[in-house]
C-alpha cells in the first residue's frame, strides 16, 4: 500500500522504479538492436507539437482528438513580457497571440512532419525510422491503460518520384502492390522478431485489408455497410448508433457483447476490394508465409481514417485482460500529403511498451534484481585510499561496485553486502593493503581467497564471462 503524502503522481501516471526500469531498459535495448538489423534509424521528435498537426493527422472525429488530448496555449506574448512590456488582461486575452500546442498522443504525425521538414524525400528511399518515448491521452485509467504511456514505433516513408504514377488514395490505386506488400510484410516481420527476442508469451498477429478510399473499393463498401447498419440500428448501443452517421467502419470495432451477433452478419470488406487491393492483400499473406510469420485474418480490424489503406494489423499478448493489444499498425499512403508534403507512401506501427512490459512481468520474465558485483568492506585510513582506487578500477572494468562512505566493522559490512544482493565482498584492512594481497569473499558459499589486484580483475572478468 502506498504511503499517502500531500503529493502523489497524477492519476493515470506512475513512477517506474529501479525494480522495473531494468526490464524497460532491456526491452529498449533489444528494440534498438532488432530495428537496427532491419536498417531503421532512431528519430526523437519533440514531446509537444502544434495541436493542428494532430487534429489533421489523427482526425478531428477520433476519440483521441475530440476528447483525450492535453492541449494548452503557448502564448507568443511571453516574448513581449521578456522584452519588459507589461501585458494587461488574462491569458484568454492573449490567446489570439498564442499558438495551441498539444502533448503528443502518438508519434506518427510527428515523424511525418519531420520527414517533410527535413526534406527526407531527398534521401535514398524508403526512409525507415523508429522512435520510443512517452505519449499522453486523457483516457480512463485502468490496468494497461494510462494517461502517460510509452510507445515504441516505426515508420517506413517513401516519396513517389514524379516519374512514378500516383499510386494511391482516390486517384490511381497501386500498380506496385507486390513491392508495397513486401514492405508491409517486412515491417510486420520486424515487430514479430522483436517480440520473439523478448520471448513475449502468447502473441497473436491479426491482419486485414481495408482497401483504398476509391469509389470501386472502400467507398462502395462503406455505402453497403451503411445500408445494413441502418437495418440493425435498433439492436446497437448509443456509441455504435452514433458511428453509423460519423464513421460506419468503426462500428466493426465494437466490443459490446449484445451487438456481436448482428455485427458478425454484416458485409465483409474482403468481398468488396478492388482488384489492386485484392492483389496487395494476397501478396501480403504470401509474403508473411515466406517469412514464417504466422497470422490470423480478422475482417473486423479497421482503422477509421480516410488515408489509412490496405494493410492493417494488430498484435495481442497474454496476461493483459481486456487491454490485450500490444501493437497496432497499418498503411497510410495519404498522410504525408495531408500534412503538406509530397505524395508519399507510408506504413508503420506503435507498440504499447507499458503493456509489453506487463505481459513480460506476468509471464515471470522480469529482470533479475539489481545486485552489486562487488561490495568493498574496508577498515582503516590506508585501506580507504586503496578501496577508493579499487572501486574506480573495478567500475572502469565494468563491474558494479558499492563502496560504503564510512568505516564499518567487517561483520556489519558483510551483512550490508548480503542485503544488497552482492556477489562478492572485497575485504580491505590495513594488513591486506600492506601485503598487497586482498581477500575476496564469495557471498553465496562463504569461500575466501587471497588475490593481488591484477588477479582479482582477471578472476572477476572470468566469472562475468561464465555467467553472461
Ligand atoms: P494506437 O496508437 O491507439 O494505435 O495504440 C497502439 C498501442 O499503444 C496499443 O496497441 C496499446 O498497446 C498502446 N496504447 C494505446 N493507448 C494506451 C494507453 N492509454 N495506455 C497504455 N498503452 C496504450
Number of helical stretches of at least 4 residues:
17
Question: Strand tally, please?
Answer: 16
Radius of gyration: 29 Å
Strand sequence of the main sheet, in spatial order?
A: 1-5-6-11-10-9-7-8
Shape: elongated
Mean pLDDT: 89
The main β sheet shows up as: 8 strands, mixed
Task: Indicate the topology.
Layout: H1 18-37, E1 41-42, E2 48-50, H2 51-58, H3 63-68, E3 70-75, H4 77-82, H5 91-94, E4 98-103, H6 108-117, E5 127-136, E6 148-159, H7 177-197, E7 204-209, H8 218-232, H9 238-246, H10 260-263, H11 275-290, E8 296-297, E9 309-316, E10 325-331, H12 335-338, E11 344-352, H13 353-362, E12 374-378, H14 381-396, E13 401-402, H15 410-419, E14 424-428, H16 430-435, E15 438-442, E16 448-451, H17 453-467
Parallel strand pairs: 1-5, 7-8, 12-13, 12-14
Antiparallel strand pairs: 2-4, 3-4, 5-6, 6-11, 7-9, 9-10, 10-11, 14-15, 15-16
Helix pairs in contact: 1-7, 2-6, 7-11
The structure holds adenosine monophosphate.
Adenosine monophosphate (AMP) binds at residues 106, 137, 139, 144-146, 149, 151, 325-328, 350, 352, 354-355.
Can you put this structure into words, describing what you see?
This protein has about 475 residues and is α+β, with helices and mostly antiparallel strands. The protein contains 17 helices and 16 strands. The strands form 3 sheets. It has an 8-stranded mixed beta sheet with strand order 1-5-6-11-10-9-7-8, with helices on both faces. Strands 13-12-14-15-16 form a 5-stranded mixed beta sheet, with helices on both faces. Helix 2 crosses helix 6 (about 110-115) and helix 7 packs parallel to helix 11. The chain is elongated. The two termini are about 35 Å apart.
Amino acid at each position: 500500500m502506498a504511503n499517502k503524502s500531500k503529493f502523489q503522481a497524477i492519476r493515470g501516471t506512475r513512477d517506474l522504479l529501479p525494480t522495473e526500469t531494468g526490464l524497460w531498459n532491456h526491452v529498449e535495448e533489444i528494440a534498438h538492436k532488432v530495428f537496427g538489423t532491419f536498417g531503421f534509424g532512431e528519430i526523437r521528435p519533440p514531446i509537444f507539437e502544434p495541436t493542428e498537426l494532430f487534429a489533421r493527422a489523427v482526425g478531428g472525429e477520433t476519440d483521441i482528438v475530440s476528447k483525450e488530448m492535453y492541449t494548452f496555449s503557448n502564448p507568443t506574448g511571453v516574448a513581449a513580457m521578456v522584452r519588459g512590456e507589461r501585458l494587461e488582461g488574462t491569458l484568454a486575452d492573449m490567446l489570439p497571440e498564442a499558438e495551441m500546442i498539444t502533448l503528443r498522443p502518438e508519434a506518427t504525425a510527428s515523424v511525418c512532419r519531420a520527414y517533410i521538414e527535413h526534406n527526407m524525400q531527398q534521401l535514398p528511399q524508403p526512409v525507415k525510422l523508429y522512435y520510443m518515448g512517452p505519449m499522453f491521452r486523457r483516457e480512463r485509467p485502468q490496468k494497461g491503460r494510462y494517461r502517460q504511456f510509452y510507445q515504441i514505433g516505426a515508420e517506413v516513408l517513401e516519396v513517389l518520384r514524379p516519374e512514378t504514377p500516383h499510386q494511391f488514395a482516390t486517384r490511381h490505386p497501386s500498380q506496385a502492390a507486390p513491392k508495397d506488400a513486401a514492405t508491409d510484410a517486412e515491417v510486420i516481420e520486424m515487430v514479430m522478431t522483436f517480440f520473439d527476442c523478448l520471448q513475449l508469451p502468447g502473441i497473436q498477429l491479426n491482419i486485414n485489408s481495408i482497401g483504398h478510399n476509391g469509389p470501386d473499393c472502400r467507398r462502395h463498401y462503406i455505402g453497403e455497410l451503411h445500408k445494413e447498419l441502418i437495418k440493425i440500428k435498433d439492436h446497437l448501443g448509443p456509441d455504435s448508433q452514433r458511428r453509423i452517421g460519423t464513421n460506419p467502419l468503426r462500428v466493426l470495432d465494437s466490443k459490446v457483447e449484445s451487438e456481436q451477433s448482428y455485427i458478425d452478419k454484416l458485409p465483409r470488406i474482403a468481398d468488396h476490394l478492388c482488384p489492386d487491393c485484392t492483389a496487395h492483400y494476397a501478396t501480403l499473406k504470401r509474403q508473411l508465409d515466406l517469412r514464417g510469420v504466422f497470422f490470423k485474418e480478422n475482417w473486423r480490424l479497421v482503422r477509421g481514417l480516410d488515408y489509412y489503406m490496405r494493410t492493417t494489423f494488430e498484435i495481442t499478448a497474454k496476461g493483459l485482460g481486456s487491454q490485450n493489444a500490444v501493437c497496432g499498425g497499418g498503411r497510410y499512403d495519404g498522410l504525408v500529403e495531408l500534412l503538406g508534403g509530397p505524395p508519399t507512401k507510408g506504413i508503420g506501427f506503435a507498440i504499447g511498451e507499458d503493456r509489453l512490459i506487463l505481459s513480460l512481468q506476468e509471464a515471470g520474465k522480469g529482470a533479475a534484481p539489481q545486485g552489486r558485483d562487488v561490495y568493498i568492506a574496508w577498515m582503516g585510513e590506508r585501506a580507504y585510499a586503496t578501496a577508493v582506487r579499487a572501486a574506480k578500477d573495478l567500475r572502469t572494468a565494468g563491474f558494479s561496485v558499492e563502496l560504503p562512505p564510512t568505516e564499518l566493522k567487517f561483520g556489519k559490512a558483510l551483512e550490508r553486502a548480503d542485503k544488497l544482493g552482492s556477489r562478492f565482498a572485497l575485504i580491505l584492512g590495513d594488513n591486506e593493503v600492506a601485503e598487497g594481497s586482498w581477500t575476496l569473499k564469495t557471498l553465496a558459499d562463504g569461500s575466501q581467497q587471497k588475490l593481488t589486484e591484477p588477479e582479482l580483475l582477471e578472476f572477476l572478468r572470468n566469472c562475468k564471462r561464465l555467467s553472461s
